[in-house]
Amino acid sequence: MIEILASPAFNTIQDLGRNGARRFGVSTSGAMDPLALAGGNALLGNDDNAAGIEIQTFPFRLRFQTDAPFALTGADPVSTLAGSPVPSWWCTRARAGDILEIGTPRRGARVYATFGGGVDVPRVLGSRSTHLRAGFGGLEGRTLQVGDVIPVGKPSCEAGRRFDFGAAPPDVAIAGAGTADDRMLRIRLMRAGEYDLFSEEVQAKFWSTSWKISARSDRGGYRLTGARLILDAPVEMRSHGVVAGVVQVPPGGEPIIQMSDANTAGGYPKMAAVIQADLWRLGQATPGSFIVFSEVSYQDAVAAMAPVNDYLAKLRATANLYRAL
Amino acid sequence: MSINQPNAPFVGTIEKSPKISLIGTLAMLVEAPGDFDLVQQGRIWALADAVSAWPNVQEAVIGVTNVMLVFEQPPADIGMLSAAIAELWHRLPGRKADGKLIEIPVVYGGELAFDLPAIARHAGLSERDVIRIHSEGDYTVCAVASSPGFGYLHGLDPRIHMPRKSVPSLNMRAGSVTIGGMQTGVAVLTSPNGWNAIGWASVAMFDPSSEEPSLMLPGDRVKFRIDRIEL
Predict the structure, then answer these.
(1) Do A298 and B25 touch (CB under 8 A)?
(2) What whole-number distance in Å separates Cα of residue B230 and Cα of residue B199?
(3) ipTM of the complex as predicted
(4) Quick one: CATH architecture of B19-91?
(5) Is B143 an 8 Å CB contact of chain A?
(6) Under CATH, which number does the domain B101-230 receive?
(7) Fewest Cβ atoms closer than 10 Å to its Cβ: which of A4, A37, A146, A151?
(8) A184-305 has which CATH code?
(9) Tell me: the pLDDT tens digits for B56-111?
(10) Residue limits of the Carboxyltransferase domain (chain B) (predicted)?
């Protein structure tokens, strides 16, 4: 069990998402940076999909009521366990009574705290992810609050095994995934259904603009500012399914990228979609930061997942080996 | 002989194929050609039923005359997949609205029906007439989307069509019976909502603990019954 001592707002329990229930109008929810959640689970020997805590407001503090291995992945905060520093992308073991404190990240937006055996809340429609809008999943369908006590599963590895090691974060380890120092995140997109309805001039503007992620951005979606993409002739779209990463253009012309808590349906023209290999990086982008888009083909988008999958597979293999030493 | 030659024999109208487009590598949107109608919607239902059973299809998400396929893995050959879907579209008979009949008792008017006066004004009818027309309709669930268990209902009498509000009502109560454009529905969540409220129903529309969580499913029929009128 762990007890929440400080959690400013919007911190929730998430796994990799609630798949298969979109047809009932249920958004997938799930970690905004699925690679970080899966990475933490890999360090601990959990299933990739085990639930953890997604922390996006700081400082966050919890107390371990029992001995427990845990990992911190995702963004790069200053963290301490019982007063001693804990690096990010690292797993270690807490003793009963230890307090873990997670400060504001120096880089990235979201920290994932994962625990040996995973956060053990009931599955709802196949997932432990919190669906905030509908109020189910996670802990009673809501954000975490001071005083919450969260059950943690049984670690898959026996006590006494080694739990003090880490991994290179993916933005360092995966070639081309790094954020340049100019604070400009490069995101790869594929064209989507209504791309051709925009004039060549507007299309060019879309690719050349440095888009700012506005303050009105959250797990539901990122609103972008920097240019207006106006159709020569407005189109009336019928309500249709959408997935995280879709870049929609409302009549005002400022694009919205739908994210984990996005509605299952949308009706705005779709300019493009973020490729799966870059969604985790977008999930770490903070409001106020800038992104720039480049276009890739379907084949390149599929191929771009290989280094991501390789990274996770290597991380898991190395962690397993290390734990067995 | 080409069918484009003026003396070619009459071979019937060649029906357009659906528009097929990708949303990234894991989703594909299939949009029926032509205007909205229940025939096209029924063909979408049938297509969704069929492709749901295909390997690598995680689910088929029905929209209004369209369906989005979500894949487990990026499909190997998009061209072949699109061709198979188009072929199926032309070959498959549509499904009728043959689902279950759902009867929903409604308290029309009152505090929660704050848009009823505006609809009556817009329609040039009395509030009582709006209620009568709405409660006499036979509705079909086209799609379940937008919020958990929210059914887009087709069959609203054109006399009481009412555009969605440009500024949503901030806290519309769950259970509100609403009109949005040419469609009607029952709000499932208490949340901001751009549809127009005309009444309230205390029917459990969604149960996340159930295997079949949504009361309404595509192809179901809905009747609203006047439980009470508060004017």
Answers:
(1) yes
(2) 9
(3) 0.95
(4) 2-Layer Sandwich (3.30)
(5) yes
(6) 2.40.100.10
(7) A146
(8) 2.40.100.10
(9) 999 999 999 999 999 999 999 999 999 999 999 999 999 999 999 999 999 999 99
(10) 18-216
